[in-house]
Write the structure tokens for this entry.
Amino acid sequence: MPPPLTVEAPHATRTSSRKIPASLLLLILFVSILVLHIPLLNLPYYWDEVGYFVPAARDFLLRGDPVPINTLSNAHPPLLMIYLALCWKLFGESIVVTRVAMLFVAASALLGVFCLARRIT
């Protein structure tokens, strides 16, 4: 089993042994982004969400088919819609669940960029 992913603390030197587990950093990022977005969690879906992503995810939730029937199929890969359908299956289908699920994706992307930046500097 490979060792858990860790990230050096930003103020740590290269010779320092202080490392922050990536899972802890992801949790900190997610909670921070969530707190900043609390006032926005109940906003209605935006035009591109209601036009493609939500109907495609709902089709996958109800039918299990990654090719949507209630909206035009386009070049978007189905992973995001499958992820949203899974979140709805686990936590219920609502705008808040959708927004929180996407905030987790944003936090994961930030962690990925941070890890890449630390690796190349």
User: Anything to note?
Assistant: The helical segments are 22-37, 47-63, 79-91, 95-120. The chain has one domain: 6-120.
